[in-house]
Amino acid sequence: MNTNGVFHIESTIKIKNTSADAWNELVFYFIPNMSTKKNAPQLEYPSTINFKKVEINEKNVSFKLDKDTLKLPLSSNIQPKKETVVHFSYDFTLPEKGLRLTKSGNNYFLAQFYPMLATYRNHKWNKEKYQLRGESYHTGFSDFKITYDIPKEFTITSTSQNDEYPSENRGSFEINNVKEVFISILKNPKFVLKKENNVSIRVFGMENDIELYKEISDVALDALNFFQQNIGPYPFKQLDIVLGEMGMEYPGIITAGSIYNSQQVSSEALKNMVVHEIAHQWFYAIISNDSFNDAWLDEGFANFAESLYYFSSTKEKVPYNLIKRPSKELVVNLPIDKYRNNQSSYIYGESMNMLWKLFEKRGGINKAKEFLKTYYQLYKFKELNTQEFVRFTKAYFNLKDNSDFEGWLKLN
After folding, report:
1. In whole angstroms, what is the distance from residue 89 CA to residue 55 CA?
2. What pLDDT band is residue 412 in, cutting at 50, 70 and 90?
3. DSSP code string of 226-293
């Protein structure tokens, strides 16, 4: 990054074909293109992108970029079990008031800023149309090495568990077995550190409200400890919380403050948002799912874990009736483009309610904790879909039919 906020990216990606098919093209998400003037005319200050070079195995190749889909046709197929290396070189600027990938005041938030390989399944690339709401991208677990060079007045926070504050302005880090990498580049943030049981909670804020940041660090540490005790180990030694931005989860780091660029939420709502995003460290970052086609498996489970955290200290046996119930018009596991403005009611709310329904006559909160521990042990650093969830749940509870899932899940 230079002093004018222009980023130069060199991205080298090693890809192995683990499918049974020969590939004649490679398909990537390139989400920065969705905030350019062409694709986001509503932005007063959109992003700019300038590709310098695209290579496959050190040979220049052509590419096609349409919306967030970046396709590389191959002159020779990539056979099963074979590897190839793709290199991208490009410059870009961040939009202001962008969605996740954005410049906010003097700070820069780099979400999905690099070409992200789509998953390949059912003999085709699993690349869906970009959606403004919800996560319309899906990537597998990968290993990353990042080298950075930023101006002196900034500090970096990221998915890395080894970031220091203030950071060096030149450095590198490696992180293995994560779905993506997020980086924020901050100018003179306020900073709170809290450490317990070998995990550090670092809170970064842009306002002069240290007392609130301390309260958030206390809540975050309490929630993190609860989830570790009742689901499974958190895989890093550090968790960063960056306040003032849209509530969103990334491996090892979360942002919190607003929902889709609305006004900033209250302090209590902010704490609740932080707990929800921390729950995503288990449901999304460790137990993976396709967030376009099975979004309920991370959002519903994150809501479920959040409610488990809050209600474990109460006398309520089954706190499943927590949110206004939507009509039974839709099930909770449709692709996100099949919902209208009621996506959250189903994917977040009804899925959480129906998960609690499973425990209503099967042991309540204590049984829910046992269920999540087993679920974590079986699926950590793996991906599952609705059908696998149903298969697991039927086996766990020894269910003889699908009656517990009818009406809220599509089961075919």
Report:
1. 9
2. confident
3. HHHHHT---SSSEEEEEEEEE-EEETTEEEEEESTT-PPPPHHHHHHHHHHHHHTTTBTTTEE--TTT
Rounded to whole angstroms, the Cα distance separating 319 from 274 reads 20
Q: Over the range 118-148, which residues count as b (16 or more CB within 10 Å of their CB) and which as e?
A: bebeeeebebbebbeebbbbbbebbebebeb
Give yes or no for a contact between 103 and 154, defined as CB atoms under 8 angstroms apart. no
Report yes or no on whether pTM surpasses 0.70. yes
Q: What is the CA radius of gyration of the chain?
A: 21
| Sequence-distant (≥ 6) Cβ neighbours of residue 116 within 8 angstroms | 28, 29, 30, 31, 137, 139, 180
Q: Given the structure tokens 């488990």, which residue do they identify?
A: 308
Map tokens 């921390």 to a residue.
Answer: 278
Residue 103: enclosing H or E segment and its boundaries?
strand 102-104
Which residues are paired to 240 by β-bridges?
A: 202, 253
pLDDT tens string 257-316: 988 767 788 999 999 999 999 999 999 999 999 999 999 999 999 999 999 999 887 766
The structure tokens 């090495």 sit at: 145
* Length of the chain in terms of residues written: 412
For the segment 96-140, what is each residue's pLDDT rounded down to a tens digit? 999 999 999 999 999 999 999 999 999 999 999 999 999 999 999
Nearest-angstrom CA–CA distance, 85 and 14: 5
- Nearest 5°: CA angle at 98, between 94 and 103? 45
